[in-house]
Specification:
The protein has 234 residues and is of the alpha/beta class. The chain is built from seven helices and ten strands. It is 31% helix and 18% strand. The strands form two sheets. It has a seven-stranded parallel β-sheet, with helices on one face. The longest helix has 18 residues. It is globular, with a radius of gyration of 17 Å. The protein starts with a strand and ends with a strand.
Length: 234
């Protein structure tokens, strides 16, 4: 695992964007796995800036998202999050975007996305991490699912995400890539932001144990992972 420690979040977001832009330049038809939440917003801002400056072309790229809530309102969906914070501001073709349907039948969406991953390999997967170590919505537990699946959300995750919902009605289920789907990506970029992630980050950095109680530790099994975090968290 390559570790990049920065003084500030902004510096880390810039480095993360540079890694993605370099991958896109090297492979214009890049299949990019994307994450939601507060952590990647700085990266997305810089990708938009690069496109508007004529420094990036997303016209041949494709994307697939890690996860989506089940049964949420449109305004609370990760689909809307991605369009608001990235897709509406770059020249990415809408038919090149793959996200689970938040109102679709969950079983049908799982089948559709499993088919997608049977046919495609993510070139670069962007990840964040939850305070309990979840990656995507692969929550700590006795076992982890390898493939796309519907999962209940841990109470810690529901509480952490409540700030995104004006009425506090956080969905309790999500569709998520499985750990096998994530680890099949050719390369992985994980960015960690926030004091609440300090414990799981330190476990990831200072131990080589792989445990389902901290799903992020499964990244030790991947040969090409870059981790970006602020020095103060380590």
């Amino acid at each position: 695992m390559k570790v990049i420690l920065t003084k500030t979040y902004e510096e880390g977001a810039q480095k993360g964007a540079e890694i993605i832009l370099a991958a896109l330049k090297n492979k214009p038809d890049l299949l990019l796995g994307l994450a939601t939440g507060e952590t990647p917003l700085g990266i997305y801002k810089r990708l938009i800036e690069a496109y508007k400056a004529g420094e990036a072309d997303f016209s041949r790229a494709r994307t697939v998202n890690l996860d989506e809530y089940v049964g949420c309102r449109e305004e609370d969906s990760y689909r809307k999050f991605m369009f608001d914070n990235l897709f509406d501001h770059i020249n990415l073709a809408h038919d090149s975007i793959t996200i689970a349907g938040h109102k679709a039948d969950p079983g049908a969406e799982v089948s559709r996305l499993r088919g997608f991953f049977e046919r495609n390999t993510v070139d670069l997967q962007l990840l964040g991490i939850g305070p309990n170590g979840h990656i995507g919505f692969n929550e700590p537990g006795e076992a982890l699912e390898a493939l796309v699946h519907v999962t209940p959300l841990a109470e810690a995750t529901v509480q952490a995400n409540a700030r995104w919902f004006a009425d506090g009605a956080v969905p309790t289920q999500a569709i998520t890539m499985g750990m096998g789907d994530i680890l099949r990506a050719r390369s992985i970029l994980i960015m960690i932001k926030g004091e609440s992630k300090r414990g799981v980050l330190r476990e990831l950095l200072h131990k080589t144990t792989v445990t389902t109680q901290n799903p992020a530790t499964f990244l030790h099994l991947h040969p090409d992972v870059t981790l970006i975090a602020e020095e103060s968290l380590t």
